[in-house]
Design brief:
By secondary structure, the chain is mainly beta. It is built from one helix and 42 strands. It is globular. The chain binds 2-acetamido-2-deoxy-beta-D-glucopyranose (NAG) (10 copies).
Length: 470
C-alpha cells in the first residue's frame, strides 16, 4: 500500500463524520455553502438544499422573495466544526437554539464557524444583516442538522422494502404503501417529489433523504391531508427523513404507539402547513419542525414529546390543544426549544392575533373538552414572543381542561401589544379551566409570581386554581 492510500485509509478510519451524497439533478442553495470538519481533518463540503417562497405566495402573510436552505450530515465522537459561507458579510451571527451553547463566530468576510459537540442537534444559523427583527421574518434561513448515524439500512432488493436511492424520484400522486411493505427507506441523497400514505401499520419509514411537495399545489388532492400520513395505523416508526414545502400538513400518525424521531420539517410557506400529530401513546423526539399552523398537536392521550426544536411561522399554535373534540389524558413535554414565533411579522402594526396564535394554544371551534394531566418542563421560547398562552374556550364549548403543570418555561421577551395578552378563560356554557400551575415561568429573566405580572387575563368566573410560583 502506498503512502497516499494509507493516508486515505486512515482518514476513512479516523473520521466519524458521515457525508450524504448530493441528489443528482438538484441545484444546491445559491445562498449558503457549508463545510464540516472533525479533529483537524480536511473539510468536507455538504450539499445545501433550498426552497423558496415565491410559488407559494398568495396573501400578505405569505410573501415571496424568501428562502430556507438546509443541510444534514451525521457524526459521532469528537466535536465537529461547521463553516458557513453567507451571501453577505456580517459582524455577528448566532446559532439557535441558544440553549445548545454553540457560539457562532466570524472567521472573515462572509464566513462563520461554530462547533457542534454532539449529534441530534438541529440548528438555525442567523446573521445580523437578517436577524428577522421588526416586521420581516428572516429572509434567507439556514438550518444545519447534525444527525446520529443510521442504523439497519435495508437491502434495496429486499421485497419487503420500498427503497428510494440517491437521486430524484418524481411521483404524480401520493403513494399508498401496501400491506406487504415492512420498511420504506429514503436514502441519503434521495429526493422524492411526492407523498406517502401508510394505512397498514408496523412499518419503519426511515433514511436521511427528502420528501418534497414542491410540485404540488396548495391542498393538492393528489397529496391529500399530509405529505406523510400513517392514517389510523399503529406501531410505526418514522425516523430521520426531511419533509419540505408541504402542500397541506406535514405529518399525521393517528393510530396507537407511533414513534417520530429525528424528523425534519422545513419550508412551511402557507397557512395549513401543520407539523406533527400522533395518536395515543405517541412519541415525538429530537425533531425540528417549522410549521405555519399547529406545530405539534396535543389531541390524543399518553403523548410524550421531548428535545424538539420548533419554529412558528406567521400562523398557528406551537403546542396546540384544539380544533377537534378532545379527550386527552397524560401528556408530557420536556426540553423543548421554540426558536421563533413569527405571528406579528408582515403586520405593520401588530394589534390583532388570531385566537390560533400562541405557544400554548387552544382554538378551532372545539365544542367539548375533556383534557387533563399535562406536564410541560423546561420549555424555552427564544426572541420576542407576541403571546405565550391563549386558552380561551370557544363560547359554545363545554367540558373541562384541568391539572396542567408548567415548570421552567422561559420566554426571552413578550412585548405588550395591547390588546394582545396572555389569556385563560372557560365558557359561559360551563366550560372550565382549573388547576393550572406555572412554576418558574420567567419572562425577560423575571420570574412571574402572579397572572398580572405576566400580562395574563384570567377570567375568574370560568377558571379556578391557576397559580404562579417562583
Ligand atoms: C469548504 O472546503 C473547500 C475545500 O477545502 C473550500 O474550497 C471551500 O472554500 C470551503 N467552504 C467553506 C464554506 O468553508
Ligand atoms: C424528475 O423531473 C425532472 C423535471 O422536474 C426531470 O428533470 C428529471 O429527469 C425527472 N427525474 C426522473 C428520475 O424522472
Ligand atoms: C418541480 O418543481 C421544481 C422546482 O420548482 C422544478 O424545477 C421542476 O421542474 C418540477 N418538476 C416536475 C416534475 O414538475
Ligand atoms: C402516560 O403515558 C406514558 C407513555 O405512553 C405511559 O408510559 C404511562 O403509563 C402513562 N401514565 C398513565 C397514568 O396513564
Ligand atoms: C394510557 O396508558 C395507560 C398505561 O399504559 C393505559 O392504561 C391507558 O389506557 C392509556 N390511555 C388511553 C387513552 O389509551
Ligand atoms: C396531574 O397530572 C400529573 C401528570 O402530569 C399526574 O401525575 C397527577 O396524578 C395528576 N393529578 C391528579 C390530581 O390527577
Ligand atoms: C428547573 O430548572 C432548574 C434550574 O434552573 C433545575 O434545577 C430544575 O431541576 C428544573 N426543574 C425541572 C422539573 O426540570
Ligand atoms: C390546585 O391545582 C394543583 C394542580 O395543578 C393541585 O395540586 C392543587 O391541589 C390544587 N389546589 C386546590 C386548592 O384545588
Ligand atoms: C425553580 O427554579 C429554582 C431556581 O432555579 C430551582 O431551584 C427549582 O428547583 C425550580 N423549581 C422546580 C419545580 O423545578
Ligand atoms: C363574573 O360573573 C359576575 C356575576 O355574574 C359578573 O358580574 C362579572 O361581570 C363576571 N366577570 C367576568 C370577567 O365575566
Amino acid at each position: 500500500m502506498d503512502v497516499r492510500s494509507l493516508v486515505l485509509l486512515l482518514h476513512v478510519v479516523c473520521s466519524d463524520v458521515i457525508i450524504y451524497p448530493a441528489p443528482d439533478g438538484l441545484a444546491p442553495s445559491d445562498k449558503f455553502s457549508v463545510n464540516v470538519t472533525q479533529s483537524g481533518q480536511p473539510p468536507s463540503r455538504l450539499f445545501v438544499y433550498i426552497s423558496t417562497s415565491d410559488h407559494r405566495s398568495s396573501s400578505p402573510l405569505e410573501p415571496p422573495g424568501r428562502s430556507m436552505s438546509w443541510t444534514s450530515f451525521a457524526f459521532t465522537g469528537a466535536p465537529v466544526t461547521i463553516e458557513v459561507h453567507a451571501p453577505k458579510d456580517f459582524n455577528n451571527c448566532l446559532v439557535r437554539p441558544t440553549s445548545y451553547g454553540y457560539k457562532c463566530k466570524r472567521l472573515g468576510p462572509n464566513r462563520a464557524s461554530f462547533t457542534v459537540l454532539q449529534n441530534a442537534r438541529m440548528m438555525s444559523v442567523e446573521f445580523d444583516y437578517d436577524y428577522g427583527l421588526g416586521v420581516r421574518d428572516i429572509t434567507d434561513k439556514l438550518f444545519v442538522f447534525a444527525d446520529p448515524p443510521e442504523v439497519n439500512v435495508p437491502s434495496p432488493t429486499d421485497p419487503g422494502v420500498l427503497f428510494y436511492g440517491q437521486g430524484i424520484h418524481n411521483f404524480t400522486t401520493s403513494l399508498i404503501v401496501g400491506p406487504e411493505i415492512r420498511q420504506v427507506y429514503i436514502a441519503p441523497g434521495a429526493y422524492v417529489r411526492g407523498g406517502f400514505q401508510l394505512p397498514h401499520g408496523n412499518v419503519t419509514m426511515h433514511g436521511r433523504g427528502v420528501i418534497s411537495n414542491e410540485n404540488f399545489t396548495r391542498h393538492d388532492e393528489r397529496i391529500g391531508q399530509c405529505a406523510v400520513n400513517f392514517m389510523e395505523s399503529s406501531g410505526n416508526v418514522y425516523e430521520g427523513i426531511t419533509i419540505a414545502d408541504p402542500s397541506k400538513f406535514f405529518f399525521l400518525a393517528n393510530g396507537n404507539d407511533n414513534i417520530v424521531r429525528n424528523a425534519r420539517m422545513v419550508a412551511a410557506w402557507m397557512g395549513n402547513t401543520d407539523g406533527v400529530g400522533v395518536g395515543v401513546g405517541g412519541v415525538v423526539e429530537d425533531s425540528f419542525i417549522i410549521a405555519d399552523d399547529a406545530n405539534i398537536k396535543i389531541h390524543m392521550s399518553n403523548l410524550t414529546v421531548r428535545r424538539c426544536v420548533q419554529w412558528q411561522m406567521q400562523n398557528g399554535g406551537t403546542l396546540q390543544t384544539g380544533w377537534e373534540t378532545l379527550y386527552v389524558r397524560n401528556v408530557t413535554m420536556v426540553d423543548m426549544d421554540i426558536i421563533h414565533t413569527d405571528w406579528c411579522k408582515f403586520k405593520n402594526v401588530c394589534k390583532t392575533l388570531s385566537g390560533n396564535d400562541a405557544v400554548f394554544d387552544t382554538y378551532g371551534n372545539t365544542r367539548h373538552f375533556d383534557v387533563s394531566d399535562m406536564r410541560f418542563e423546561n420549555i424555552r421560547v427564544e426572541g420576542s414572543c407576541p403571546r405565550v398562552v391563549n386558552y380561551n374556550m370557544d363560547p359554545a364549548a363545554e367540558g373541562t381542561i384541568s391539572n396542567i403543570t408548567v415548570i421552567n418555561l422561559s420566554v426571552d421577551s413578550q412585548p405588550v401589544h395591547d390588546p394582545i395578552h396572555n389569556a385563560i378563560s372557560g365558557s359561559s356554557r360551563g366550560g372550565r379551566i382549573i388547576d393550572w400551575q406555572f412554576v418558574n415561568l420567567t419572562i425577560a429573566g423575571q420570574c412571574i409570581a402572579s397572572g398580572s405580572d405576566g400580562d395574563f387575563i384570567i377570567d375568574p368566573n370560568t377558571t379556578s386554581n391557576i397559580t404562579f410560583t417562583c
